Each structure stands twice: as structure tokens, then as C-alpha cells.
Amino acid sequence: MAYIKIWIFLAVLALANTQKTSVENYYGDNMHAVVRNDEYIDAHRRHYAGNIWYYDFQINKFKEAYLERVNSFEYQKEALVRELIRVDEHLYPLTVLSDFSKACVQKYKSLIPSMAWAKSEMDRCISVASNQANSLITYMSSTNRTLQSHYATTFEKELNACKTKFNTTSPTNYTICLANAVALTNTYTLNNQKSFSSQLQTAKNSVAVHMKTVQECTFGVYNTTVSRISEANSRIDTCLRGNDDCSHCSGFYCQEVFSMHHSLIDPQNATMFNPFYRREAGKCLMMNIV
């Protein structure tokens, strides 16, 4: 009888140990599965954060490059200011040479635009282009915010739904649910990236238009200023020769002076820019090649 009791006791003890081991294996496997799922999700969160960072990087570099190109026109403004200073230094000795030469300078110097006007007009051209910087990145910034919002709300809600529905009841289904949430977000990211790339290309095309506009604007200011300087110098020179009031005098002077940039002259091109094409008719046009 004693042997039977001992045998029953050992059988119960073995059964208890077996059950304990099964429970430990179950919870141990589940714990490892949870850890693997957490690492899987964290890896994708880091990847998504990298997507947002790269969007920000591209937007900031695009804006910086655009403003750098616009600000390069500051050199043209500085060159124009130096030209006005040079002209003023050239004319000043004539104002102290004699009363006659001073009168000639004072009579026509007003034709030359002031330095304040030249600076203001060049600044206006540059400012108009600079103000386009934010509008160029509007759509890209919106796309970036949309993707960031998807990661922070939609994706996280899907993860919480998986956790609520499957985490404690079915680890396998929980893992599948997480994988589906990631797959959907990856598809959304891909479509978002396509939109961003298209918007970036459109912005680059717009930059070319803005660059042409600011170039034409600054050249117009430069051309007007140099033309007026040339006209004033010609009239002052005529005045100094004593021919200022002669309406039929001979020589090489025209009332109308056209300033033409040397880059527009191309001897190899039969259809180069024609400075004589205009609506008004005139008897004399003097060209000043700069």
C-alpha cells in the first residue's frame, strides 16, 4: 500500500511539472513574439521619420538654392552703383573747371538716374523674385504635412486596433494585422512620394520662369540707367563744344541713344536682336554698346 501511495504522489508531481513547463513555454513564446513585433514596428517608425526628414531636407535645400540664385543679382546692383559713382567722379572735375563747364554739367546731369532710384528699382526686382520662394514650396510642404499626419494618426490608429483586437488572444493574427497596417502605410507613402517628386519638378520649372523675369527686370533697370548716362554724357560733351543750341549742327550726335549689351551682338547669327525694330519713327538713333 505504501508503494502505491508513493507511486501516485510521484505521478501527480510529474503531471504538475509538465503543466508548469507548458505554461512557461506558452508565455515565453508569446513574450518573444511581442518583442519581435515591437522591434518590427519601431523599425518602420524610424523609417517613416526618415521619410519626413528627407522631405524637409529637399524642401529646405530647394528654397536655399533658389534664394541664392535670386540674391546673385545683388552683384548687378553693386556694379550699377559703381558705374554711377564712376560717372559722378568723372563729371565732378568739370563742375570746378569753369563756370561754363559747370553749367553744362548741371544742365544735363539730371538725366542720369539717382543712385537711390537705381538701388530701389534693383531691390524691387530682387524682392519680387524673393517673395516667390514660399509659394514655390507650398505644395511640397503640404504633401509633407499630409504624410506626417498619416504616420502620426492613421498608422498609429491601425496599430492600436490590431493590439486591441488580437494582442492577447491570437499572437499570430496580431502579427499579420501589424504587417497589413505597415503594407497599407507603405503604399500610401509611395503614392505620396510620387506626388512630392512631381511637385518638386514643377517648382523647378517655375524657378526658370522667375529667373527669367528677374533677369529681364534688372536688365531693364541697368539698360535704362546706362542709356541715360550715355545720353547725359553726349549732351554734356556737345554743350562743352559749344554746339548745345545748334539745331542743324554737324557731328555724330543723336538725341535718342540706345544702349545695347555686347552679349546681344552675334556676327555669326543672321537673325540677331534688331535694335531698330520699334513702333516709333526717328531721324537719328545712336547706339551705345556696353
Automatic annotation (TrEMBL):
Please list which residues make up the signal peptide: 1-18
Which superkingdom heads the taxonomic lineage of this protein's source? Eukaryota
Name this polypeptide is given? Protein TsetseEP domain-containing protein
Q: Does the keyword Signal apply?
A: yes
Task: Please state the gene responsible for encoding this protein.
Answer: 106086059
Species this chain originates from: Stomoxys calcitrans
Q: Which UniProt keywords apply?
A: Signal
